[in-house]
Amino acid sequence: MKLIIHKELSYKVTGLLFTVHNKLGKYCREKQYGDALEQLLKENNLKFIREKELPVESIENQFTK
Q1: Global pTM?
Q2: What percent of the chain is helix, strand and coil (3-state, nearest 5)?
Q3: Fewer CB atoms < 10 Å away: N or C end of the chain?
C-alpha cells in the first residue's frame, strides 16, 4: 500500500471533487467543473493555484517524447 503524504488534505480535496461531480453530473464542460471546484476550495479556505502552467519538458509521457 502506498503512503498518503497529506492524508487529511487528500481526503478533503477528494470529497470536494466528488461533491462537484455529484452536483454537476458527468456532461459539463471542464470550465464548469473548474469554476465549481474553485468556489468550494475558497469556501473551505484551501489555498490553490488554478490551472498553473507547467513546462512541457517536465511532463514525461508518450506524447512528449
Answers
A1: 0.76
A2: 55, 0, 45
A3: N
- Cell numbers standing for residue 54: 507547467
pLDDT tens digit sequence for 4-39: 899 999 999 999 999 999 999 999 999 999 999 999
Q: If DSSP codes are grouped into helix, strand and coil, which group holds residue 43?
A: helix
The total number of residues written for the chain in this structure:
65
Residue given cell 508518450 in the structure block: 62
Q: Is 42 helix (H, G, I), strand (E, B) or coil?
A: helix
Helix, strand, or coil (residue 60) = coil
The one-letter amino acid code at 65 reads K
